[in-house]
Protein 1
Amino acid sequence: MATDATHTGFNGADQPPSWRVTRVLGVPVAVCANVFAAALELKQRGGGQIVTLNAEMTMAARANPELGAAIAAADLVIPDGAGVVWALGRQGFKVRRSPGIELARELLQYAACHGWRVALVGASPEVMESLRERLSREIPGLQLVLTIHGYQPPELWPGLEQEMCAARPDLVLAALGVPRQETWIQRLHQGQPGLWMGVGGSFDVWAGSKKRAPAWMGRLQIEWLYRLIQEPSRWRRMLALPAFAWKVMRQG
């Protein structure tokens, strides 16, 4: 990402980006007024990797050097989780939480209106089949040039990746889970013109196989509780949340 500095305006790809980059527990994150506008700016600048950062991923990046390196190299890291927004607030930055699932959907709608070529990667074969049907119905004009489920045999991935890069899509959404989606995107997106973004469980929600937390839980910033109720096996991963809060407070 860009160095820690404030930039305003956009006059071309040779100019610094309009957002500021700061750090939460050593992990870079962008401070910007509108993440959708920032994503479109990134596309105009030639494309790049978008990461949606929450507290759990922040702690994972500190423990996993490969994930940490992928996030550090990303072109736009947005504050997806309430914990990251809270940590930024303690630094004096007043930003809104920007859920990745909402940014990704907004980008799909924009893509349909502007003739972008879109590729989807990840989730199960059943989810991908349902997702293709639903998105084609719900977003008229969406050009899905490639859809690849995430349960491919290992020997098929090199060929699928070559096909992906040859297609040169304008938008790639990868639902391969953390850290795989971030490291996979980092490896493939170099030299590509589009936006490449990890979207976690968004495909499952859009396909109707899972439900997103109610809006009131989002307003109270307890969507993590809804996910835990849906998937009790996540409880070990959720231990990262109090650890994150403790480390942020210790930093003052």
Protein 2
Amino acid sequence: MVEAAIVSTAGAVGLAAYAVRGRSSQLLAPSIWHGDRKRPSLALTFDDGPSESTPALLEVLAKHGVTATFFMCGRNVRRCSEIARDVVAAGHEIGNHTESHAPFYFKSAEFIYREAALAQESIFQITRVNPKLFRAPYGVRWVGLRQAQARLDLTGVMWTAIAHDWKWPGPRVARMLLKRAKNGAILCLHDGRAIQRTPDIRATIEAVEFAVPILKERGFTFETVSQLCGL
């Protein structure tokens, strides 16, 4: 009886963990985590921006002719409004990454909706773009997110692979990108650090600068998430 209870508890914990953080989970909110696996295309995505460090990343992307998707936080958009507009002007796609980057663990449905709705409003007011994509902070889905996405007409986006560019050096991040790049992959990096001012994103920039030319030589093209997934 005790062993059965332990197994049952472990199974329930595992299911809950998958529902909350599993990249392919649809249990708490619908989301996509890869695109067409028949085409040699990739989507670079950048979370937590915009930040005072974003312009340097925009220069690298422009240099290599790469279009990406930026998941922005409302507070950062208001603080770095001109940079947010520069991202749009450069032809990149904008997604919603909540107002304050607070994790959704144990938060109410109203809190989750408000975080998404406030960011949606700020992004539209500053950039005149009404995002259609949403990425939860830390990839954490929770009860109430499904309803929030539906109310705001947002499609959830996870990732095929996440670069630990907030803690890994640039060469290690680049190796990860080269290793995990497959047809239809959505690759998650960061041009900010939550709502921190002037974050150090040198590892991200170094990794993108190194990996993108190699990936192009391998035959990959770069698209926005919407393009990659036919949205």
Protein 3
Amino acid sequence: MKKLCCIVLWMVCCAPAFSQAFSLIADSIRKYRGVPGLVYAVFDADQVLDIGASGVREFRKKDSIRITDRFYTGSNSTAFTAYVGAKLIEAGKLSWNTSIVKALPEVNGKTMKLYHTVTLRQLLAQRAGIRPYTQPDDFKELPRIAGSKTEQRRSFATLVLKNPPLLIIDSSQPVYSAAGTVIAASMMEKTSGKSWEELIGIYINKPLNIAARFGQPRLSDSLQPAGHGESMGILQAGLASTTMTYIAPATDINISLKDYIVFMQDMLKALEHKRSNISAASAELLLNPQPGLSMGWETDSWKKMRIHYYLGRSDLFSNYTTIIREKKIGIIVLCNSGTVSGKSAVLNFGRLLREYYCR
């Protein structure tokens, strides 16, 4: 690792064209970490400052990865769901203080009463004490859930809310819960009369003119990047399995780098009070400065600057997405490996980009 850091520092200090230098750095980190493909971008509210791609769509194949390719966002999908929640609030269909029992009155009498006053904001800020439901073992005791997409999510919410919380509700210590995000999405579905998938189309895809889609990219297009995992220490392309419908709002969005930039630029524009799809007030609430997890994002301070970031969780893909408030820029790094090495690659490279562009 020390050797790689020396190479990286030499490239950044000596190369005359920084965009080209970072392309070489991306390739070095990708190879060092054993990641098949990687794409990245640095941008402000109005333009892309740097963008690049390195590697291949599938391990041991020669099909080069492209910046137009689609990547699975995994748990970063929560940021999209929180954005939809903010838009519904702007439309007067919900409020941040809407409680579970008010939005989903049918859970009354079927779930633990201590959850009934939990709000949309607490759910999206991961402060509702809901069990994580991020590992396969979490789902083993659940019965088969049938019905439409919205019905499945509502049934799942009811089952989850029968279990005692992990921590005291609204604890200062947030605990990420995919189930908490799903309950929030179910509240949005009930109050709007639309499925979560439809809401993504109405409040994100159409106004921003982008295409956030659902499921592993290769499920609908065999030419898209394959996700990769490890089996007995050997990297291999993973099967494009279908995510359980009822957990989709927390994990199931796929998007191209270019469209992801547009989504993130809308947040930056709102924060700068420029013309945007989401309001400045909503963007500030989503990226509130409380320690730990805000709504769809983690918040922290770095070199006396506020940063909002997420290291996406997925078995087959990894991503690192961040906004640096004082510098008014965003950074996205995506790769088609969900291994520890894949997560390290996006985090290492994302931090290098942050160091340079925030110097």
Protein 4
Amino acid sequence: MIPTVEWKNDHVVILDQRVLPGEVRFLDCEIYEDVAEAIRNLSVRGAPAIGVTASLGIALGAKQYPGADLKGFLLHMEQVCHAFASTRPTAVNLFWAVDRMKRILASASPSTIQDMQKRLQEEALAVLDEDIRVNRALGKFGSAIIRDGDHILTHCNAGALATAGYGTALGVVRAAWEQGKQIRVYADETRPVLQGARLTAWELQQDGIPVTLITDNAAGALMKQHKIQCCVVGADRIAANGDVANKIGTYSVAVLAKAHGIPFYVAAPSSTIDMQTPAGEGIPIEERSPSEVTCLYGDRRIAPQGIDVWNPAFDVTPAALIAGIITERGIFAPQDLKEHFS
């Protein structure tokens, strides 16, 4: 499995997901600004991966500080943390990671700059290792919902590429496959950036897990033909009441699943659960460039020049449409989150 993000020789190395599947290319980030830009421009994406990458980027920012003045270092780190918090608004794992790194700074002060740099690097690497362990635990719990012979529909990419490794929704799939269950995944292409076509299909193909790519608007027809037994998706933020923000189009899949009597599950680490946001309407929804809709790969225009475009990156699926939320601590009904995660 190709690593999504790594710490190598005091650099952050990121798999550039913008060019997959045609090219496997890595970004060697020597300064924290390059890491922040990689998050902003979708070189790295997926809520857990964004959180891990931000942690590593903050540790890199600490290493960059050239002076010996402790007050100056702490002001520098405020700037670094703010830079990462400003990259993308919806994925709560980003803010969870930034806050976690801030707590290390607070607990380490007063101390030497060298000691704080060391502790920040250790914490960032712990975040990375924990993410992989959490995903494996989540996958093991989630595999219980998958029966031998099931066909599973997923939307966007919630695999190893969206995490530090193994995956959330695809972690569930991987765990079921490793148990010997004969399954097939149907992957929505996921317009407009095609994370399903470019990333999910590629990732599953690399692992030898049977996968069929479909257009987003084919999901309902598949369900009507009884070819889907369950839906499993990831999440970028889960509100306290169980409403879930995920890639645009997830809500449509959930509505279709409900209409056809198909269980719809969300797989995400507990760091994606935001108890400070009571309900889905409070989740900030990122809107991205119109060019993602009007052009393919940034330069091939497929819509009229000057056309008005609405391009939200995410939508919110109400808790009432969700059969269960799969976490590293088990599977919970959306209405039970407050009891278990407050």
